[in-house]
Amino acid sequence: MAQSVCNGIQIAFDDTEFGSSKPPIVFIHGNTLNRSMWDKQKQSLRAANRVVTYDLRGHGGSEKPITGYSREEEVKDLKDLLDVVRAPKSHLVGLSRGAGIALSFAAAHPGMVSSVFAMSPSFDHDRHLPDFANQRLDVMATLRGEGLRAAKEKWLSLPLFTQALEDEEVAARIDQLMLSYTGAHWLDEQPPKDPSLGDAASSITARTLIMVGEKEAPGYHACADELGEKISGSEKKVMPDVGHLISMEASDETTAAIETFVLGKVAESEE
User: Phi and psi at residue 254, in whole multiples of 5°?
Assistant: First the structure.
């Protein structure tokens, strides 16, 4: 693990070919997880590709400020990180919150992005996912009233994770990943209201694939459809038999899809 100051805070990251001029595949994790969620993808792809993973602010080995958890700040973090690893152009792969960061970055810095592979992105929660918006507030209230363990239990009890937790191996990995989560961004007393991805999406010029799980909540499918309409030339793919945590629930299939879309490789089963 390496660390560097990005946008004023310490960000923990791994770069399989630090100092290389090769455009990396940059993986961006979701809320409450960390860069280790991508270990299977990294192991499969690193032999022939440069892979960068990092912990979002407030997660894993990165610094945990008391405030500043807006997507705007997270985009600035990523911009500085890509400057640190000397990656003028990258492929971005993100899940959930990470997908939103990837898409927002592509809109803000189109010249730095070759492609975006966005899994389970969401935006305008009040419109698309009103239940989830309220559930997040409940988790934050639980943290303040009952402590971190109770808040994590409530978080994992949300319908968002039901499908993933049915798989014992995936459930164990989620538990392990969440051990390092301190609840930092849940404790932000001034939680940011992110600008709508829907407003920024039309500015994205990179090749873009929006992936959603077949068993994901309808609101996420609506988000994917709306983004697909606004991002010129984008594709939508539905991953069968999975829910929100696509890359963990269907690890091998996700890696194959990344190779096909991002790298232009055809899976052996399709040759």
Answer: -65, -45
**What CATH fold (topology level) applies to the domain 2-270?**
Rossmann fold (3.40.50)
45: CB partners within 8 A, 6+ apart: 25, 51, 255, 258, 259
* 98-140: pLDDT as tens digits: 999 999 999 999 999 999 999 999 988 888 888 887 888 899 9
Q: Do 249 and 242 meet the contact criterion of CB atoms below 8 Å apart?
A: yes
Q: Whole-prediction pTM value?
A: 0.95
